[in-house]
Amino acid sequence: MRTISVLSTLLAVANAHMQLHFPAPFNSSNNPYLGDCNADPYLQYPYDCCGPNNRRTYPCRGYISLLGTPQGAPTATWQAGSTQKYNLRGIGNHYGGSCQVGFSVDKGETFQVATSYEGNCPYRNNGDGPDGQDFPFTIPADMPAGVQVFAWIWYNREQEFNMNCAAVEITAAADPSGVYHGSPAAQASASSSSVAVTYHDRPEMLVADDGNGCLTPHTTAELKYPQPGPDVVMGDGVYPLELPNGTCDAVGQQASQGETGEDGH
């Protein structure tokens, strides 16, 4: 019986993957602007895994090209400087990992960090979402208004990389000073900072585990980001935190290029 239980657990972990649920990402089955495109059934799977085009294009699986089209319409409207939340769903949460969220204001050329979650992302004990998998964060107060790209990147302790992106409408901040003092979630974390950091002074989001020579911890630790930005939410301490290794000197290290999603949109 124990052997069966262990095998079941291993199979569950092997098939455990998550994706961004809200805001609805490009080409997701829950995106109201999908139109006549086929939803990508592999958004919850890591890059270089599964489907006819195993290697997906960085960034955003190639779907950055949907910006400015009806299928790329914003799926959320957020005010700069406000506290918002994103949530996740999937077929298994891999018992945690580390995540970053951030934005691109130049159509995917660069992605600046909004918040880094070091450990317990997704929440390891909260199921497969979207219920129970809400993550609060604060929009940088000096984010330019307009349609921007929101990005979520996950490292799951198996040296796997997943990235989903969504178009979001950013409206002007209520406080025009653009001063940023950290989200409530980060302020509640002992290691978070509360210094004022403008959007363009933030580090780029880390890209690793995608054939670019940068590797995150495997199995026994969760990722500690080398440049997490000012807003850091610490996990629950179940696993130690370790920095990535290899060719990670460029924090915005580009992933290997490859094919776009299921239907080429």
Outline of the structure:
With 265 residues, the chain is mainly beta. The chain has helices at 2-14, 184-187; strands at 18-22, 77-79, 83-90, 98-104, 112-118, 134-138, 146-155, 161-171, 214-215, 222-223, 232-234, 241-242, 245-246.
Descriptive overview:
By secondary structure, this protein is mainly beta. It has helices at residues 2-14, 184-187, and strands at 18-22, 77-79, 83-90, 98-104, 112-118, 134-138, 146-155, 161-171, 214-215, 222-223, 232-234, 241-242, 245-246. Strand 4 (98-104) and strand 5 (112-118) form a beta hairpin. The protein is globular, with a radius of gyration of 18 Å. Residues 1-15, 189-195 and 251-265 have low confidence and may be disordered.
